[in-house]
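Data card: per-record layout.
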Amino acid sequence: MKELAPTWPPLDWPQWQRSADTLHMLTQIVGKTRLALTPRQNHWWNVPLYVTARGLSTSVMPLPQGDRLEIEFDFCAQRLAFRHSSGRMEFLTLEARPVADFYAAYRQTLRDLGAQVAINPMPVEVADGIRFDQDRVHRDYDADAAQRFWQVLSQTDRLLKRFSTRFYGKISPVHFFWGSFDLAVTRFNGRRAPPRPGADAIQAEAYSHECISAGFWPGNGGYGRAAFYAYAAPVPSALPEAVIPGPGAFNKALGEFILDYDEMKGAADPAQTLLDFLQNTYSACADAAHWDRASLDRNND
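The structure for this 301-residue chain is written out next.
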């Protein structure tokens, strides 16, 4: 059966930024629950969310009493679903309301399910963060935009997984990082990285080894529009001058390669355009960093 070409909906950052900022806080609340309930893994791989057929999920988390819990953002039904191993299910509607009110209802739902979870109420990786229980600033929610965002994540997840098959080395799952609000996959060459100057505990663990990462963000972080990105850590000295074939280029201000979402979306073959960007930027990063590509790369042909 011929695979249908993916559709890429419009995702205009200024149009839904206020809603995205609210959704960012909601994903942090749920993500911090996963952080609290799961054992720590290398590079913080125990904290992200994962794209599902309906939204974003924590995957199954162990509870202290031996039960299991999964929490999923269902962007088709516009609700947050709690699925307990007892068979019990609870739901919270995803709608316009202050983060503080959502957080109170969320904590009550966890208590109703017998899930005792200690959550740090301060958001991370955002400027001027407001405690979840005091946040009445973030209250917008555009259901249509949230669903379009998930549709983009779903298509990107599919292509990042296809791209991931071309590598023999250590590679992450496709992660949705709720701190930075982006979807990413990361390759490693096995070498320890030098300590990052000024790195906090999160960055020190995330970048403890040399890596090349690629992914998608919807426009947050100051860039102002949806884009795909790729970067190497640490950054090879020659990389800022690298030129890749096809669309996308190295952005010296950001220190990484950028392909605007609208440019990819407008291409004759958007999916192939993105796959080419992923492969071309990986090649540029790996060559500049002198990775052993003969051992690490896999030919899928």
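Known properties of this structure: The first helix runs from residue 13 to 37. The chain has seven helices and twelve strands.

See the next section for split statistics.
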